[in-house]
Protein 1
Amino acid sequence: MALLKSKKAKSANYISGKESRRISKENRKTTDQIEKQRNRRNVPRDEYITQMKDQNNVVEFDDLHTYFFTDIGTVKAVDGVSFNIPQGKTVGVVGESGCGKSVTSLSLMQLVQRPQGQIVSGSIRFNTGDEVYDIAKTPTSEMQKLRGNMVSMIFQEPMTSLNPVFRIGVQVDEVIQLHNKQMSKDEVKVRSIEMLELVGIANSEGVYRMYPHELSGGMRQRVMIAMGLACNPKLIIADEPTTALDVTIQAQILELLRNLKDKINSSIMLITHDLGVIAEMADFVVVMYAGRIVERGTADEIFKNPSHPYTIGLMNSKPAVGKKVDRLYSIPGKVPNPIDMPNYCYFYDRCEKRMDVCKTAYPNEIYLTPTHAVSCYLYHEMKGALENGR
Amino acid sequence: MADKKLMDQSSDDILLEVKNLKKYFPIKAGVLSKQKGEVKAVDDISFKIKRGTTMGLVGESGCGKTTVGRTILRLIDKTDGDVFFHGEDIFGMDNKQLRDLRTKMQIIFQDPYSSLSPRLPVGEIIGEAVKEHNLVPKNQYEDYLDEVMIACGLQPYHKDRYPHEFSGGQRQRICIARSLAVNPEFIVCDEPVSALDVSIQAQIINLLKDLQEERNLTYLFISHDLSVVEHISDTVGVMYLGSMVEYGKTEDIFKKPLHPYTQALLSAVPTPDPDVKMDRIILEGSIPSPANPPSGCKFHTRCNHVMDICKTVVPEMREIEEGHFVRCHLYY
């Protein structure tokens, strides 16, 4: 029995050489086609300039699909994600590793590893104030003007995201110089030091001349934030900005981000797996699982009335200070294999409330309130009953 | 025999006692590697752990938590102080005695990706120490291995696979099985869940708790995640820059933190409830360099209750309530 099981388990990820060659040939055909479309010269502006659905949003993700074409099959890292980031608000994206939260943000920055990673369909509308870009179609040359200027990103590891061979000053200067060509060197330096002061670095002139290794983790993250904010972006993407830091430093950095957001009036897309951080920072929450959004709503709605079984499980599995439980809840099983996902609800195999209908097709989004949407059949029935009752 | 002696004293309630433990690392520089100074990674730490309980050790990175764990196991040598396991001085043992001791004390490392040999199949990883110490007769070896693996939530057919075929959570289970296979009494868990996803964390924590109940294990649980430590520990020690600043029962520490550092640490933990907007004590700056620690109380540079005496006089560890120790001038 055990032997049989082991053979079966092995075959799950195994494909023959012939099959693998066929897949990679097909992949190359698909990606070449997309790349060719991308690399055209002088793309007409009306191809990527569009209109927002709601002018108050900075970003609108509309049915975004980002796939990775690998030699053992297509990984649908982001599979139909739609949500908005309103002006001046913080949107938190939560989920376990591998659920596609980082790929969503990288798609917005056009930093997905090409050619194997591609945005295959959907659009990301980005509002710069004067014009609206569809990032999925914007050519690289135009994107360079937005990246770092209008959208900027703070990465998880301040250790590895600063260049160890350049002084802090040079690295902050570079961002400012690149997007403000008219500024003189001295002006740029003044601005850099101003930025370092803004993020709470006391010895800003000294730090300007230091190398990254001379700074602690919290200080490096502050430098990263200074670089991110240098051009007053409309949107800051913070990809697990505090995961690598200690709790006391985390508290400092979160406080800083909150204050700065109000100061320069921008929005934050906060990606994290820590529900505590989300509760503290976010106005809206998006819960992702296996490349799709399972639940989204305001922070109050998600934390007071978590509706999707996955969200509930996620919340119960984290111990909270001051709340004593005998045994932690743990979601059974593990995330499904990203290649050939099932055609029914992805959470079916781990769900405790599964029903027969869950095995039919992926559930549509149901709105519990105008802002609170959940993809689960549990609420399809409830909603149906409600409507029938009326 | 040392092993026999260890067994005789098993009725003793205190399993591990650490007395004034110090570990300094030399800083060497120059062509001749002359010693220039020292990093006081662990500076005068004392605590006791009762059999069958868990002691949590918390603190920021660089405060010496891991060094404490490793010195207790004699993976690195001490500078000063004593560690008694079952009343036996660990640092007074010879190699033979130490070898027997290894089956009684084990460690689980933080990163399950780098702590498993990629070249050995899982069965071998788990069983290596069992074979080495001849813990079970040869004909029962395979059955014993199966038993250990099942206890840790692994399937016996996983034995022939290699670590790269497993996910992070599964790997951590392998690490736990490896340390459990020699049937230890005491395990140092050095941030065993920090590298894992939230839902997997819960599985591993539950597993550790179940195993503790089944086998009456004693843990030293090192972590920077306060919520996890509160969940799993019976007693908690808070470390700052190589020293223990507060030590006591988990409820005491979390309900009524006395040391300003513990208070700040607790208030810094984000709570998953958007309504709770507590008055956060934000510590300024970061942890000072342990090579050149501040004079007097080491925490005085960041403390918001700082007094003149803190800058010059090192506070002593004092018992404020029963079993609740704190090292702070505020409580003199």
Protein 2
Amino acid sequence: MSFSAQEIEEFKVEATELLDVAEKSLLELDKDGDFKDCFDSVFRGFHNLKGAAGMMEFTALQAHTHELESIWMSFKDKQSIPKNYVTFFCRGIDASRLLLAGEMVTFDYHIEDAEAATSEVYKPIELLKEKSSLADELPESAIDEFLVECDEILDIVSSKLQLMEKGVFDKSVLDDLYRNVHSLKGSAYLFSFNNLGDIAHAMESSLEKVRNGTHSPSSQLLNFLFKSLEVVEAMLKRMKARESDEAFIPVIQVIVKALHKASEFLIETEAKTSVQIDEPSSSLPPEARVNEDAILTMPAPQVHGSKEKEPEGLGSIRVPVSLLDSLMTLMGEMVLVRNQVLQYSNKTDDLEFLSMSKRLNVVTSEIQGEMMKTRMQPIGNVLEKFNRVVRDLSHDLKKNIHLVIHGSDTELDKSLLEAIKDPLTHIVRNSCDHGIETPEIRRQSGKPEAGSVTIKSYHEGGQVVIEVSDDGKGLHKEQLLKKGLEKGLITSAQAELLSDKEIFDLIFAPGFSTAAQVTNVSGRGVGMDVVRTNIEKIGGSVELSGRAGFGTTIKIKIPLTLAIVPALIVKCGTGTFAIPQVKLEELVRVDQHSSSKIEILHGAPVYRLRGNILPLVDLNKLLGISGSSYTNYVDASINIAVLNAENITFGILVDEIQDTADIVVKPLNKLLRSLQVYSGATILGDGSISLIFDVTGISKVAQLSQVRSRVKEEESNKMSEIQEFLVFKLGSATNHALALNYVQRLEEFKFSDVETSGDQRVIRYRDKILPLISANVQLGYPDSEKASDTFPVVVIEKSGHFYGVVVDEILDTMSTTLEVKDPIKNHRGIFGNINMPDRLVVVVDPFELISMALNEQAELVAKPRDIEIGSRADHKVVRILLVEDTVFFRKAIKSVLDKRGYEVILAQDGIEAIEILNKKEFKIDLIVSDIEMPRMNGFQMAAAIRKNPTYTNIPMLAISSKADKQYRQEGMKAGFDIYLEKLKPEVLLAAVAELQRNNKVAA
Amino acid sequence: MSTSPNQFQQLTTFYVGAELFGIEVTKVQEVTGSTFVTPVPLSPMFVCGLVNLRGQIATAISLAELFMQKPSEQNEQMSVVCRHEGSLISLVVDNIGEVVEVNLEGFEKTPETIPTNIRRFISGIYKMNGVLLSVLDTESIFKELSPVGDGATVKSNL
């Protein structure tokens, strides 16, 4: 018998499904899943496959699965499957897949434990009979599956019997018949439909002799067999209605007996078989004859109320994917027409047409939604496969790894599902191989021996997110950097500037692999870059995060479908272009009134977006569109679309932003694709064509990776060195500024509210008296004429008191990386100058202004003697550890100390300071520290340092803007020797010198 | 291609400049008048852009540019649309001629003296009454549109 290609294809699909189910249950069983459920499910898998394979004449596969089934059944009453057998069966399933694919496989069924392989398939089934309540516990779906299968079998049996009736006794016919009856029996017993099983068993036995070729079937036997079929069909109907088949028991008993008899009196064939069919029934022994009439006329018990339930089997049909694809394409066309109709309807007043077009809109959207669903498949179809992958890997790697899957019912376009399979496999393998440690190491680091890999998938913002995380050793930045340097992916100069995220990104660089050794699992150096490439190809993105010692998480975001994507339509020159929303981060419009403008950096336009430099690509220039290119970035109104590709964020300058729309992606030919800039084209509502940008491609064409590295340097400088200032106007032509860290609040007071206390002008401010200090007066500038009746005040806290510094006008804040230069002329109250590109800004010292106003004396006056000691120390360098989180002060204090010849080592907070001390790389002679710092403040740090015997005597100086009594006391208690207020250079130097002197005396 | 005598072939003919060209009639999907062409920035000169053919997108190719000839000044241009493996190209020509039936016997190799940038797109010449007809090799044009070794193919092989 030959089968059509389609039949074979369908068989293969079904066989694969059967194997998948069997494998899944096998692994569940391995993970202490419910024994009976899993066991039965695996058995069903093997058994059904055996049957189907036999039917489709995949004899090798049939034999193989038969063998597997037999071995499997030997565990029926053992209630557990040894681990080595799970592996054995896994391999068995693999072999089945190979056989299915038409490959030749030799499979060794003799496992270590030989006794298991011997028991034959029937015996355990007999045992099953004792358990009669099984069917009640089986899931409905399994029973339905079984019933559908039975129907199929009955169809085949009946067709074969008809052939026999016509006198066709080919061996293949008989074999088919026998096999199917046998399958029916097996399944029936398995599901504890024992009555059904019994009748099938009787049918099978009656056929035995015929099949062996020793006897010919009699017409009587055939009649009985047909009658049996009828009964079986009736029983099945009952079962479908979930009714008991008890009513059939007497009938069955009669039939079983009759079949038995009929087979006993079969006539031996003398080689030829043709005439036997006409054998008159009269030649049969009386018992048989009597029974025949009775049976053949016996009415089948009535079946009640099953008719309504019959259509249940029609719940799903198989449809070729190509049909769905073409439906999808047509759907796309329909969406286009809908868009066109909608656009046209905007121009007309025809109410009837308007309402029709609205209706069309709604229906089309609904169809689109439903159409999408036809291609959707639960991601579990792919994720479940990883159970096996992880199991095998943990076995190979001698690790103990659990796989936890969440959200396997998240649905995703089938084509995308295919596309993410390989990248996901790679990630999971990586997690197992590189991420999870060996049990010993895990024990040592205090983790449970069993590692776990978790895959989570969920919908988020029109995208599907898949997170693969492990609780393994995580990513060590140092290792990544070292590797990156070794492989020449980065230079050592770059390495210092990389942010954490960029370091993690190294993993995606081609040729990067962190495994110390190349294992057979992973570590070949092609890997994560391919993962990223493949994910990006389907419009997704990959992100990696993790903490050394606590595992790694890889987050994949992919669109729900590729066919229809939401996009932003922009105009450039005369053309319209579409930008996929997935890649779009935000839109920024810059015009004359914007606070931040586009700047030109080495000839390339950049924009400061919330303090970060955003490289800009002028699309008109990039695409060579002439005419409308912005000639002047600074004055024009410009639209920036901020895009993200491969973790590079950049902006493109477009002429006009039009609309968002769902676009249908049409592929471009290779030539146009090779331009890299376009990923496809689409037809807009008005029928015009719009090219879809390939955002990643644009970044490549614009050579943004280069721009990026250049910007990165500046950016990372900024990250650590950026300082914010409040810029204000005084009675001077130059603008003045003070470090924003000083500023508590900005207030606007009325002149009429000002009171005086002695000769000090004050104002009531939150139940307190706020002394007002005029910056103009203190710095010797003329007081300006005020037009309004209010004046701006900068509120500053000094030593627990608030002061109001009066300025003429508060202008702005500015962020700069530029250094504060020493003032041209020393002036009390002035720190220095900042040379901005376009102007000079004078930086004032508000504390000094306040001191000046209050006529305070410096707490400690630097005497020439102290300074000499400081300078004398030059020949033996005194090393000071400066702990300060604020860049401005760090620089200011460092420059003060530098100038006096001290060697200054910088730490950003208490933790870093202690790390430096513990490293003992430098001998630290003295510590100068701020109090208010992140992570570990000055008090905590001082206390910690004092606890260390090495540093009980190290001089420590606190320097803080919080310098009221309470703070001072706490500082002294924590272990500081001197507590100073920020920031008077002379006082600081004097204090340092004093501490040094004391320390020497002490030593 | 079989060259047994008295075999006939039907060709759609058209003019590029003064020259007569032909494409096997079975390879032509349709002939259209001038349609609105959306230019594709950065694409080679011979790509005019994209055209919307009743919801399908075709790439418009200027044959004059492809042959590195001076494009005609003519305003009204015609297009010959061909399909190749699911993608459409629209060949922009100056004028459409008749559909002619030619005898395969009259088929000759392209003379070596024809400039290469034309010869590579021509499979041969038919001698007609008073005029020579160059048969356009659509395959070679499609090949021109599928450069080997572009980024996309390399990646998918990984």
Protein 3
Amino acid sequence: MGTKYVQKSAKYKTSVKDPGTPGVLEMTERKFVFRPSDPTSASKLDVEFRFIKGHKNTKEGSNKPPWLNLTRDQGGSYIFEFKNFSDLHVCREFVGSALAKSGEAPQAPSEKLVATFPHEQLSKSEMELRMRCLQEDSELQKLHKQFVIGGVLTESEFWAARKKLLERDYSTKSKQLVGFKSSMVLDTKPMSDGRTNKVTFNLTPEIKYQIFALKPAVHQAFLNHVPNKMSEKDFWTKYFRAEYLHSTKNSIAAAAEAAEDEELALFLKDDEILAAETRKKIRRVDPTLDLEADLGDDYIHLPDHGIFRDGGKEITESHNEQCRRTLSQDLNRQGAVVLEGRTIDVDLEDPRTVAEALVRSRHAVEGSEKQIGLDRIARMTAIEDLQAPHSYPFAPLCIKDPRDYFDAQQANAIKTLDDTRAGMQQTKCSLSTTEAYCSLRESISEIKSSGLNHPIIKPEVALMVYNGLTQNISSTKYQLGKNPQESILESLPNPTKEELLHHWISIQELLRHFWSSYPITTSYLYTKVSRLKDAMSKIYRQLEEIKETVQADFRHQVSLLVRPMHQALDAAFQHHDADLQKRSAKSGERPNGYT
Amino acid sequence: MASAPSKLYADDVSLLVVLLDTNPFFWSTYSLPFSKFLSHVLAFLNSILVLNQLNEVVVIGTGYASCKYLYNSSSYSNRSLEDGRMPALCTRLLNNLEEFMIGDEQSIKEDPREGTMSSLLSGSLSMALCYLQKVFRSGSLHPHPRILCLQGSPDGPEQYVAIMNSIFSAQRSMVPIDSCYIGSHNSAFLQQASYITGGVYLKPQQMDGLFQYLSTVFATDLHSRTFLQLPKSVGVDFRASCFCHKKTIDMGFVCSVCLSIFCKHHKKCSTCGSVFGETPVAVDSVSKLKRKTPET
């Protein structure tokens, strides 16, 4: 990924069928430029990578020519045909890294792999999930960049080892029904400017939807009258006039107006459709509904508990039954609709489509009402909020932070020195069994005859012991382990430290894939293992280089840290070679049979 | 006395089980004479008994080929055996120790252990744990037990499994294992034992101040340890011994079924008998190779 500039001859094609314009494709980190060989040609390109959403390419070995397809984020794409696949691969890798660098495109590698591995169909959400994982974890991103874009691992291999990570994020998504807003929209509060008699109602698509849902009669009227009889604006004006009349509690005026205007009367009448449905609905409340809490629920701090009408002042004028609508009725209706949940899933902008969708959903509810009700209740037993987290029948691997390991290494390093020194002093027991036992028995009889030492311990020695212990305790407490400056890793210069840590993580990742590929049963695994082995030997050499280039003062510590990495890699290589030998022995045997 | 019928144990009453390394091969090469060592240890045991009337001390000898209970403070109700020069404890212990040495020499002749310098730590650990189990089962009232290993001989990797089992058993019964290791190397077994059971591991630097180490560090009862700062090990050697050759190894093979450790690849786990699956292809090639070898 080190190259900053790529230049290849290629043909630019506007579509797959287009024969293409021959020319030169130049790529820098930020943009790519296509210059046709014929300077008069119009198909000149100069595009920045940030306008590129992703890239695909044809596979080597397929009967298609080497094409690279760069997808623009506004749709459309640029297709380049190269002379051969090696050119294509160079450019593809370059584009991959350029897209990754341009920030908003960690998605590029995923798209590429969707193209190369058509059997792995990723949903958009899954891809987003992976991207988020990468964005959240810079170490993961580094690994991803190194191995997936570097071609050592495929996208699916990389993520297969991290299923748990994905699942965690995935399972947080709720599958519950989206709830209906619980604030009372029936009381769309009018705003009057105080001077004129004009009263303004604010109407949003959401409120329209809520009105349709809450008042089937209004919904019906809307479907009947709009846009044939009256415009949408007139409809809502009428509706709110009725609402306004209602809110002024001027039932006489309301009745008078209703007599004049039958459409208006509709809004003031009791909702018959509602009355018919009410009883049925009580029986089909969906228990899985996720009620959405909003400001409407905060009835402690809102004036009048968030309801702009006061039920106490409701005038019960029995002479005009038609126009009477009580607060409690409204509340009940509101509650019923909230419990129904959001039944439509369309763009709220156009009230006509909303109204129609609502009709469809109502019909659907009528038809399969019972079945759905039963299904829902059956599902109720599995409300996700109440479920225990998924437990799997395997114990998760406990992979520790490599820092812990390095910290522990320091103590071991000290000890190794200690032990080697001590080891030299060790003398082999030269006495025979009888002599040894004899000398021991002599010691026992000696103490029996002479008694215990007197004094048991000399004061100076006791003081030395005390000082030693105090020093030991304070040093283990304040200096070793806990103190970052004291650990080997931290004492190294920063770049070396980071390099080592990164190598360690890379090795872990590679080894995990390496060992999980055994036993090799398919040719796919075989190529994967050899790919991994190449990557590992590269890191092996890099570690060796670190060891050589580091300053003399640190060389010993670094080699201590590098040794276990080398050992782990050596074990893998050894296994690989042994396996290879076994295979070749077997394949060599086959043609000859038993010899 | 300790055997009084109504014992009310405070939280600082201890039952100390001391495992005394009596490996003659170690002591004959060690710089500190065994008599000096015993003098420190006997004074220490005495001071434990003096610290609290209800304290109990059990001494188990870790010999080369055998182990034995050498002393149990609760079984001697009277201390009439004083002879002016030494407390009764010392006389009894030394007498028992002498007997034990003779017995140990006897058993080495019957069953010689080849090529190792280590003493039978696994045996004495097991005996200590058995004794403590007996104490636990005698009733709910008993002093707080702990084990102190006074060890000098090197680790015997062949005892790895037995010692680890003892360690885990001690961990389960919440018995801390303190270790005072006077040998030249650090003992990986005792380091692990103290680390796992929450005891103290100490390798004294001044051998003539052994009593000071013992009384400062290892005489502290479990209750006091909650507010004392005792020496901590800097690092613990967690290396394991392989089950096949009893070698201490850094890296090895682990049975996926029973977690046994091997230094090289085996076809079958010697502990649980699991057959380590290869691919059918690979097994085929192995059998072919086997058949081929005798012919060529």
